[in-house]
Design a protein that fits this description.
With 441 residues, the chain is α+β, with helices and mostly antiparallel strands. Helix content is 30%, strand content 25%. The longest helix has 23 residues, at 228-250.
């Protein structure tokens, strides 16, 4: 799935290429354009350079991936999210749309910050099994849960179990999504009857009864590659050189004046000229600036169970070095950040703004005070404005679909796209100018 982002004067768009196998595209697009399906971001077809692109308006919406980078998800919020999802799927059935064309990837699922409404893109021809998508979504959300909230843990685990069950049906999933807390506890509560257990067997009983879902750790790496045209141009250059050599031989240009045998001096000169020309073309064709990048996603599963679980207290993990117990969150490995103080944003106006020390990654700047790493108190700043990340000793900056935008060296950034940032680069956050600095040599 080719993904890009565009921004015009008033709106931000997620852009996807039309699938070649989307035979029902005409019906789907026109059905969505004729009806206002709440929470469904409809595709707007645009033909550019003889290619059909779908534009999805994501203005004033924040991706779920970004929204839960720093904060955890409570029971009320996770149930609201899945309830919205159930309503969206039911709407697709009602309008005879393919539910498998809904994109349930967290980075492409959007939440309206004003209404908390979940918004999902409908991509004709996507045709990715809804059941498998929901399984992946529950795995992702399980890693973001507030593990002190048992209702949230049990609720998501129950959805996961329903989706993985051999007798899966959408009606069963709807019942699980819309069930009450009592229903969930009756079905999946691992803490039931533990109060009657003997003290010496409490820990063992809890360990045996706690539901365990493998937690998925994501690892995204950026890989450089050359596009297909690079190899085509290379082959054409080599073939062109060989063709010129054959032409020179057939026309006897490199023969002696008598025309009876090859003049090796002329042949050597011709080969040298051809090598120089081809070498120059190779230098241009294989220039590093012609490389493209793609993100390679890898993941692995871990056992999220803590060493000791108490039904009345937060999860506790023993720390051998200190000989005492400290509260522990079993998701700490998934959300772990590495402290780092090697870079910072230096404001142009030192009197009005402070230096922003970047001490962990990802580092989010915005106006949502409780859920960002640096609270920038200014009316032009969005709640989630910009993110700085680090990988393989390279720094990246990403605009988070902010209202007033972010610029790098005067160039506006497309939302949700990573850009490499170097020492001394100018970063303009909604008109507030900073300079990116590092302490590295």
């Amino acid at each position: 799935m080719e993904v890009s982002y565009k921004r015009d004067l008033h709106s931000s768009y997620l852009v996807l290429h039309k699938k070649d196998n989307s035979d029902d595209e005409y019906y789907c697009v026109h059905m969505l354009q004729a009806n206002n399906l709440k929470g469904v971001i409809r595709p707007e077809p645009r033909t550019i350079d003889n290619r059909v692109l779908y534009y999805y308006d994501i203005t004033s919406k924040q991706s779920m991936e970004t929204l839960y980078t720093k904060n955890t998800i409570s029971y009320e919020r996770v149930k609201g999210l899945f309830s919205n999802l159930a309503d969206l799927v039911e709407q697709t059935y009602e309008y005879l749309l393919n539910e498998n064309d809904l994109i349930l990837e967290p980075e492409h699922m959007y939440i309206d910050l004003a209404t908390t409404q979940l918004n999902i893109c409908y991509y004709p021809g996507y045709n990715k099994d809804l059941r498998n998508q929901i399984v992946s979504l529950t795995e992702h959300i399980m890693n973001k849960l507030e593990y002190g909230d048992r209702d949230a843990v049990l609720y998501v685990y129950n959805l996961y179990a329903v989706c993985r069950d051999e007798g899966f049906s959408f009606s069963k999933l709807l019942s699980a999504i819309r069930g009450s807390k009592r229903d969930i506890k009756d079905i999946r509560n691992p803490y039931a009857n533990l109060s009657e257990a003997k003290p010496e067997t409490d820990d063992k009983a809890r360990e045996n009864q706690i539901p365990v879902m493998p937690e998925k750790i994501y690892d995204d790496t950026e890989q450089y590659y050359y596009p297909l045209r690079t190899y085509i141009y290379t082959g054409a250059s080599i073939i062109g050189g060989i063709a010129l050599l054959i032409l020179a031989i057939s026309t006897r240009i490199i023969y002696t004046s008598m025309g009876k045998r090859i003049d090796y001096g002329k042949l050597t000169a011709l080969l040298l000229v051809l090598l120089i020309i081809i070498g120059y073309l190779m230098k241009i064709i294989w220039n590093k600036n012609n490389r493209l990048t793609r993100i390679i996603s890898r993941h692995e599963y871990i056992d999220p169970r803590p060493e000791r679980i108490s039904p009345k207290e937060p999860y506790v993990k023993k720390i051998p070095d200190e000989g005492k117990e400290k509260p522990s969150n079993p998701t700490v490995l998934l959300n772990k950040v590495t402290p780092y103080s090697g870079c910072y944003l230096e404001p142009e106006d030192n009197a009005a703004y402070d230096i922003i020390n970047i001490n962990e990654f990802p580092f989010i700047i915005g106006k949502q005070k409780d859920n960002v790493d640096y609270f920038l108190d200014n009316e032009v700043i969005s709640r989630y404005h910009v993110k700085i990340t680090r990988g393989d000793n390279i720094y990246y900056i990403t605009d988070l679909n902010s209202t007033n935008g972010t610029c790098l060296n005067g160039e506006p950034l497309s939302c949700y796209q990573r850009y490499e940032i170097l020492k001394g680069n100018e970063v303009t956050i909604a008109g507030i100018r900073y300079f990116f600095q590092t302490n590295e040599e």
